[in-house]
Recover the amino acids of this structure.
């Protein structure tokens, strides 16, 4: 509505993301109201600054003294959260201006998204805020999260794990549910902004801030409509030079565009234009809400591949075919395996293995071979990244297998044919002894059977740390696929070892293709940039080129 | 390889799916070998028929007496599982023929998929089997599951829940992992067949059997290559007249086709031809492995919609936009809400709700309103199906919410500002009292706050049974989306109440679109069919048209 206000004043971002004190206008004791939830979740998130309650009709809110107005607090307030009906918001903005407050989060809805009257009200408050030099997040926003100040100024009880991902979301609900999913997927967040109706501060402004924010290593965007495509393009391009920017654009078709109009009051614009802007700016476009989170997880834990040649390893041929199909669809290359590598694998696989990529290890159950195949593939110079299917095992591996392969038949025998139990156990014991005697050997004629001495190598933790070391050494990403595992097990492993695990081969390939494309376009963007921007130092490097000292184009 | 043999003899399917006795050729005591796993999993699955071990070099296998050959058993064997190296398989087929066995599951690999020598060997065994009237599943198969005889003749420890879904999979690994996923998603299976290299029995033969199988209510197919497109088309068309047939075709692009060649030895053929065959036959095509399972779950528990007009209800606008975009993409219509319905909803929603479909309930936290909105939408004559987002809550709802909204801030206060705790608790108590006094009322100005008396209505079980009753009454499907829930909770609820829950709005829309299209094409297929085929009676009807007595075209 007031994009013109977007650049007309200098924003004090520290007041939004690192406020020393927060006031809640419309603070309430009524359970479930925004004015109740916001301070409660601020407390729950462990916010350590000072907290002021504003409500002229209450004496205390959540145990804290309630002030009749912002000006009556009489102490410095960095950030005010406004949760009162729309018609009262302009007065609150005046009050904030009078109190010298420079940052507002206006959660109230019923502005430009609800029609012309709301739009007029929104313009009014935007102008007043700009005049007073106030940065407004919202209105119609779910709020802000900031890890540095433990600020959970959100309308939902979501307490993200701190980390390197920052998320600008035009939808609050989608945003906080993504933060929630992030907890499950092991994604840590630096900042979250529900941009809402963006009265005087919009996605490009947040992008500018996040581009220079040292805590932010990956930027996510969920956008419905862009008020100023050119400004978005400029901001996105600048941000994408120093860190991966991943965007999901909604409002693509006719139904979607109409839904956008009534949701955020924005004009959805043409998806083709957005797509070409993304391509120009080096922004990675996500195709679905799932993929947005997959990409966030992958970019925050994996090294970027040097090229687009993938090796695919699979326990069973079908998944290999599904992955190859996905490579066709996503434009990911399958690496040609050099003859020397095929010879190497010949020693580790049954005689009749396919000798091509995808490498179908034909149900091989020797873990030592399995791991040596992974290592050979990753270390092959023809391979830029590995997609590995059937490698992660889930926490219940031992229990499940013991139950399913030994205990289950044993119980059936015990209850149905008890006379056969002693002979059954004797056979198991004899077989196990035989397996132990033949440990280390490998029969290339078919299924070689288990090597029972490999027990430890079959655990999640062993494999995860093995893969992590391999990635550290090679600088190449390994994308795991855990098709038949419980999601929990995979995500626990992910959290602990920073291994990205995709739920299906299709999703793994899609992530791999986007990482590879990013690496390529990023390489050319940096090459064409007269003085390459400074890259941010990181504890867990994203495998970017070496640091280059800044200049005119670089973030300050 | 020998499609010509495909129809040249009469298959005794009961020997494959309901064998009274099973022999394992190549039975072994060596852990991990196929000859060890198969009988172990047969026992583990609770197979109750007689089990014979065949191995000339062992005295006992898994406690059972080992016979030197099939002929030496001296008792009737319905089904033999062959797990010996490829070069010895032809002799085993001869042995089976001599013993009068009519069904073989040949798990051995290294046949047509590995090159010309293997192909010759496969032809040889196929011819011998056809001559002897033996139905061969495989070679290179993961095996067979059949719920009626509790037959888990599989190479992996997978024990599906019995149910109405049957699955023909050209990939064993993908197949058994789907069976595994089915356990998690609450999908019950009637039969599973790993068709493997399909020496003398192929997908169309299995389709013919499943079309008439009273236990099978939904048919899934994973196909890489079809040896005889015409036969597939005929069989699929016949099957699709009596039950939903859902197919995932792999080997679509160049990389995929090459991967198929080396996996199952099949020719992948053209995806365009397959697609048009599916359309002609009334087969529902899945686009990904995820979608195959989504469709299986949805078709096995939901009524079929009468048309293509969807209502979308969402707790937050962003997800509504994402769903509307998906509708654009998948060709699903959004129902126009009649004025009377809008008036009805006006009473239940904040003043500024969008008054259109998707219905954004703007974070409404009154459960009574929430449920009445769902009911109004489902009962609206303009609406054929409902996609409902943010309705399922997960088992941890109370615990999570108690922890996050009350306990968490309390603990922070306790440890950081203990002096404020008494006043905090007093405020909470006062607010709760106020909420209880205002129960049933609803403030249309904004977030109305919680009604603490609605506690029970917020549980999973309450909602699930509510939705189930609504579906039973209206005959319209309700597809839930559980974006922010743990998958476990959603699937547990699904299992218990037969509610289909999609993981994202995109997946929900995709399933809804395919169900709607199925309903339409099925309607026209039935109309154009001179005498409509008999439909199978079912305990949990799939909401198909009334039964019509059979005739020439009907399954026998």
């Amino acid at each position: 509505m007031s994009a013109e206000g977007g650049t007309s004043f200098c924003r004090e971002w520290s007041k939004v993301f690192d406020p020393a004190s927060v006031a809640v206008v419309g603070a309430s004791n009524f359970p479930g109201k925004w004015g109740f939830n916001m301070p409660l979740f601020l407390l729950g998130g462990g916010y350590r600054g000072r907290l002021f309650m504003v409500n002229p009709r209450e004496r205390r809110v959540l145990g804290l003294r309630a002030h009749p107005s912002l000006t009556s607090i009489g102490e410095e307030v960095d950030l005010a959260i406004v949760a009162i009906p729309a018609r009262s918001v302009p007065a609150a903005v005046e009050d904030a201006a009078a109190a010298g407050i420079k940052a507002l989060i206006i959660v109230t809805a019923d502005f430009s998204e609800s029609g012309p009257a709301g739009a007029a009200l929104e313009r009014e408050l935007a102008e007043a805020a700009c005049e007073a030099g106030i940065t407004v997040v919202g209105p119609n926003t779910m709020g802000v999260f900031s890890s540095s100040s433990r600020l959970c100024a959100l309308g939902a009880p979501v307490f993200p794990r701190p980390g390197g991902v920052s998320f600008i979301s035009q939808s609050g609900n989608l945003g906080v549910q993504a933060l929630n999913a992030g907890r499950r997927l092991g994604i840590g967040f630096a900042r979250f902004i529900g941009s809402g109706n963006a009265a005087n501060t919009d996605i490009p402004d947040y992008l500018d801030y996040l581009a220079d924010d040292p805590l932010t290593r990956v930027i996510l965007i969920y956008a419905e409509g862009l008020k100023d495509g050119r400004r978005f393009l400029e901001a996105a391009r600048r941000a994408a030079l120093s860190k991966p920017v991943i965007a999901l654009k909604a409002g693509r078709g006719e139904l979607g565009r109409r839904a956008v109009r009534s949701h955020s009051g924005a004009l959805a614009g043409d998806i083709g234009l957005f797509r070409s802007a993304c391509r120009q700016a080096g922004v990675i476009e996500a195709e679905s809400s799932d993929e947005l989170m997959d990409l966030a997880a992958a970019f925050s834990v994996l090294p970027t591949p040097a090229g687009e040649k993938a090796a695919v390893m699979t326990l069973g041929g079908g998944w290999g075919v599904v992955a190859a199909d996905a490579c066709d669809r996503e434009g990911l290359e399958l690496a040609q395996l050099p003859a020397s590598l095929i010879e190497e694998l010949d020693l580790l696989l049954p005689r009749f293995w396919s000798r091509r990529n995808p490498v179908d290890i034909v149900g091989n159950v020797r873990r030592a071979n399995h791991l040596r195949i992974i290592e050979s593939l990753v270390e092959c110079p023809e391979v830029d990244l590995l997609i590995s299917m059937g490698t992660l095992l889930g926490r219940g591996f031992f229990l499940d297998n013991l139950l399913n392969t030994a205990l289950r038949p044993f119980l059936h025998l015990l209850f149905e044919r008890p006379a056969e139990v002693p002979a059954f156990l004797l056979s198991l014991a004899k077989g196990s002894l035989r397996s132990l005697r033949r440990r280390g050997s490998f029969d290339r004629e078919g299924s070689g059977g288990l090597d029972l001495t490999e027990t430890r190598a079959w655990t999640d933790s062993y494999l995860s740390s093995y893969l992590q070391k391999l990635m550290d050494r090679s600088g190449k990403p390994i994308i795991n696929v855990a098709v038949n595992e419980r999601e929990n097990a995979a995500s626990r492993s992910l959290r602990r070892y920073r291994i990205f695990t995709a739920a299906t081969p299709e999703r793994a390939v899609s992530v791999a293709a986007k990482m590879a494309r990013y690496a390529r376009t990023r390489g050319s963007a940096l090459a064409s940039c007269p003085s390459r921007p400074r890259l941010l130092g990181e504890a867990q490097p994203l495998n970017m080129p070496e640091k280059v000292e800044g200049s005119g184009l670089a973030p300050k």
